[in-house]
Amino acid sequence: MKEKLIQRFYDVFSAEGSVDVYFAPGRVNLIGEHTDYNGGHVFPCALTIGTYAAVRKREDHKIRFYSMNFEQLGILESSLDELINKKENDWTNYPLGVCWAIKEKGFSIPCGFDILYFGNIPNGSGLSSSASIEVLTAYVLREMFSFDISLIEIAKLCQYSENKFNGVNCGIMDQFAIAMGMENKAIFLDTADLSYEYADILLEDAKIVIMNTNKKRGLGDSKYNQRRSECEAALEQIKSVIPVSSLGELTEEQFEANQNAITDEIQRKRAKHAVYENQRTIKAVEALKNKDIELFGKLMIDSHTSLKYDYEVTGTELDTLVEEALKIEGVIGARMTGAGFGGCAVSIVKEQVIDSFIENVGKAYKEKIGYEADFYIVSVGGGPVKL
Ligand code: ADP
Ligand code: MG
Predict the structure, then answer these.
(1) Is 96 part of any domain?
(2) Of ligand 1's atoms, which has the minimum distance to the CA of residue 343?
(3) How many C-beta atoms surround the C-beta of residue 1 within 10 A?
(4) Which residues have CB under 6 Å of ligand 1?
(5) Ligand 1: which atom is nearest the Cα of residue 118?
(6) Which ligand has its closest atom nearest to the C-alpha of 65?
(7) What global pTM score does this model have?
(8) What's the Cα-to-Cα distance from 96 to each of 49, 64, 79, 138, rounded to whole Å?
(9) What ipTM describes this predicted complex?
(10) Would residue 174 show up in a list of annotated catalytic residues for this protein?
């Protein structure tokens, strides 16, 4: 991969000087969905697929970007002296936001650079290609200019950039999972205080299979914001009867005893998901520690059910993938992952049935939905690296 990227870099820019190559992973959240902005737990892991960058310093202040995923756009040029979000910048608003955030935090970027990206994760499908390109860019800058900044600071800075520069209201999970990824481990992260621990992903004779709905982007973003406000409204009301600062602080029993304070039925369902999903995530990590993979799978299925009926963020495409997956013997668990409405579902599947799993779920999906789903058999990988 490294040689291929350097060659491409030379073709796109010019064949001179030394070029360095870096990689940052994508991520998949195994359980703990829509809990990250509710002060709850999440359990994501970094993947061995992600985003690569080949980079070379320049002598001026220009930044020239090229992405092998958006070749039709050619080279897009910006300057370190003008780090502003513009429509014409297209996808480069993500890495530009990172340069902006680094400067905001008081670091000075001494010179421009030419940079070529290539991602082997799908864009806009919930595997967080945006956080992958952000963390990658921040990591490249840190290594290239010897900035004294930790990986956790990188995660925070990238979230800040996506929130403030790109106007995307994301939580910290994606950037954290990517910056802090560790091979064969998932990260049990408490989004309330960013305390975390690593848990071994020992699936024995099973693998993680990601199923992509390939659904075109719809109203997902506005509904995401709506869910956030519904949870905020529910929290405000429940606060009047029990002193908490987030839904993630509530146990199931506390929620049941106090839920009547939430007058709106929809808001009550949203809060119920946030509370139960957080507790489920805690139980799922415990199950994994006890090597009870069957229980882990069952909790994944419960998570999907809650996201379908209480949080209402699944939709026919994700439901079809999960329902069809669960019909197959040897599937330990399956659920939607990411924000929902489209994007991907994640499943744990016994190795010996993976081929027939892909064939059967793929066929049923195509028949019902009318277009193909994609399947990726993934491994749990580490964080950003120089290759
Ligand atoms: P997700 O993070 O779920 O993949 P987003 O919409 O948040 O979806 O981010 C996708 C966007 O991130 C792309 O449309 C593009 O602007 C940017 N991006 C991600 N990976 C790349 C890449 N390899 N090259 C260029 N832009 C990328
Ligand atoms: Mg994203």
Answers:
(1) yes
(2) 3
(3) 11
(4) 51, 67, 69-70, 91, 94, 117, 119, 123-130, 133
(5) 23
(6) 1
(7) 0.94
(8) 23, 11, 9, 10
(9) 0.99
(10) yes
